[in-house]
Design goal:
Elements (H helix, E strand, L loop, with lengths): L7 E3 L2 E14 L38 H13 L7 E2 L2 E4 L9 E4 L9 E5 L10 E12 L3 E3 L8 E3 L6 E7 L6 H18 L11 E10 L9 E6 L2 H20 L7 E6 L4 E7 L9 E2 L6 E2 L2 H9 L5 H10 L4 H8 L2 H12 L4 H19 L10 H12 L5 H14 L3 H8 L7 H13 L2 H8 L6 H11 L6 H12 L1
Family: Belongs to the GatB/GatE family. GatB subfamily.
Subunit structure: Heterotrimer of A, B and C subunits.
Keywords: ATP-binding, Ligase, Nucleotide-binding, Protein biosynthesis, Transferase
Length: 489
């Protein structure tokens, strides 16, 4: 789906949707942003709270430099400007799960400036790309969580998330369709997971998106936007955009006007509803945090961050394509970091790139989907897969026998050579044995033989199939073809 192909059809004609995303990504680190408290998911309420997180009097924040390092590495991964000088601000508002009465964030001087992410909105055409601008990445602390289901008349507060380090990654309003927004979010998640700065687990809340949507006549002035908060899956982000864009068109065409507001997405109904009017920056009374010195990054720190970056998805995809792997397969293999690492290990074990890509994207991924497993839980290791592919390449196994061996590998975890030996599955190229079987097949198929010799050449496949069947699939297909041509001549 291209930028110009997605339009909302209204009563007054076509409308264009303008989309920007603010993604909150929980930083992978050993502790919270300003304290040493743990951040493990699923811990008992209020068991991962330091005195700093609980805002006890006299407690002062100290920046966790691992969180800063991960945010800088993320900025470098999208070729963003890294600001050597940045500053923390206080965002003041009252909420029961915010013990300090303010959130420490970065409004005026963020850690990371402008960058860009290249997306492929059309899965079937990964070469059709679009660049989405990233305005900034700043680090901030998360709030706690209100629990409304613990008591019939009271709400409880869990401060385990209070102070957890977040990167807020703010895009430009460059997306023009739900598909583009979905592609952007998937690509961003992939980059974060390659870098190791966020696990990207949207179900556990370690990555979530605020979705900004407005509509306008194609090419017209920007409309008033709404912000749908805390959407926690790619599918829901796309659904929220689609619903909100259509809702705004209906409001405008009915003579109403769009109010700048914060909305919530209802997963069950696929609709959004108003939560509160949208505040501006001055409503939060931002000012520099007096307890924190500005961050000043040294060149040695930046050099270490840069040198620690792995091969990123786009570079890895191009490398795969240079090995003869198709653009589509390269895109599939690099979409998830675990799959890319598994495939790299397969290549390192000596597998031929094209054969390895064909087998991995069809046989392995198909089997994992069928059994409900992730690549990390694959019962077949890259070394075992390389051995299996080598047995096919040297003629020990035919394609059909390789499938049989692979199924046994999935069940037992045994090496392919052991399975071949134990079960007698080795492919035969013994011309004498194959010739004997061919003679039997021809002898019991006089009608087909006469038709073949009479010009019906499509029956050649019949004789190949009968021969392979008689030999239990263990005959070398190339040898069978060669001997059959001689025998049928």
């Amino acid at each position: 789906m291209t930028e110009t192909s997605y339009r909302i059809q209204g009563a007054t004609g076509e409308w264009e949707v303008v989309i920007g995303l603010e993604v909150h990504a929980q930083v992978t680190s050993n502790a919270k942003l300003f304290s040493g408290a743990a951040t493990a998911f699923g811990a008992e309420p209020n068991t991962q709270v330091s005195l700093v997180d609980a805002a006890m009097p006299g407690m002062l924040p100290v920046p966790n430099m691992e969180c800063i390092r991960q945010a800088v590495r993320t900025g470098m991964a999208i070729d963003a400007q890294i600001n050597r000088w940045s500053r923390f601000d206080r965002k003041n508002y009252f909420y029961a799960d915010l013990p300090q009465g303010y959130q420490i964030s970065q409004l005026y001087h963020p850690l990371v400036g402008e960058g860009a992410i290249e997306i492929s909105p059309d899965d079937k055409n990964p070469d059709a790309t679009k660049t989405i601008g990233v305005e900034r990445i700043h680090v901030e602390q998360d709030a706690g969580k209100l629990m409304h289901d613990q008591h019939p008349t009271r709400s409880y507060v869990d401060l385990n998330r209070s102070g957890v380090a977040l990167m807020e990654i703010v895009s430009r309003p460059d997306m023009r369709s739900p598909a583009e927004a979905g592609a952007y979010l998937r690509k961003l998640r992939a980059i974060l997971r390659y870098v190791g700065s966020c696990d990207g687990n949207m179900e556990e809340g370690s990555m979530r998106a605020d979705v900004n949507v407005s509509v306008r006549k194609p090419g017209g002035e920007l409309g008033t936007r709404t912000e749908t908060k805390n959407v926690n899956s790619v599918r829901f982000v796309m659904a929220a955009i689609e619903y909100e864009a259509k809702r705004q068109v209906e409001v405008i065409e009915d003579g109403g006007r769009i109010v700048q507001e914060t909305r919530l997405f209802n997963v069950e109904s696929g609709t959004t509803r108003s939560m509160r009017s949208k505040e501006d920056a001055h409503d939060y009374r931002y000012f520099p945090d007096p307890d924190l010195l500005p961050l000043e990054l040294e060149e040695a720190f930046l050099a270490e961050c840069r040198s620690s970056l792995p091969e990123l998805p786009d570079a890895k995809r191009k490398r795969y394509e240079s090995l003869g792997i198709s653009a589509y397969q390269a895109d599939v293999l690099t979409a998830e970091v675990e799959a890319a690492r598994w495939f790299d290990a397969l290549l390192d074990a000596g597998a031929k790139p094209v054969a390895a890509a064909n087998w991995t994207t069809s046989e392995l991924f198909g089997a994992l989907n069928r059994t409900g497993r992730d690549i990390a839980d694959s019962p077949v290791s890259p070394a075992q897969a390389a051995e299996l592919l080598a047995l096919v390449a040297d003629g020990t196994l035919s394609g059909s026998l390789a499938k049989q061996v692979f199924e046994v590998m999935l069940e037992t975890g045994d090496a392919p050579s052991k399975i071949v030996e134990d079960r007698g599955l080795k492919q035969t190229s013994d011309t004498g044995a194959i010739e004997a079987v061919i003679a039997e097949v021809i002898a019991r198929s006089p009608n087909q033989l006469a038709q073949y010799r009479g010009g019906k050449e499509t029956l050649f496949g019949f004789f190949v199939g009968q021969t392979m069947k008689a030999m239990g699939g263990k005959a070398n297909p190339a040898v069978v073809n060669e001997l059959l041509k001689k025998a049928l001549a």
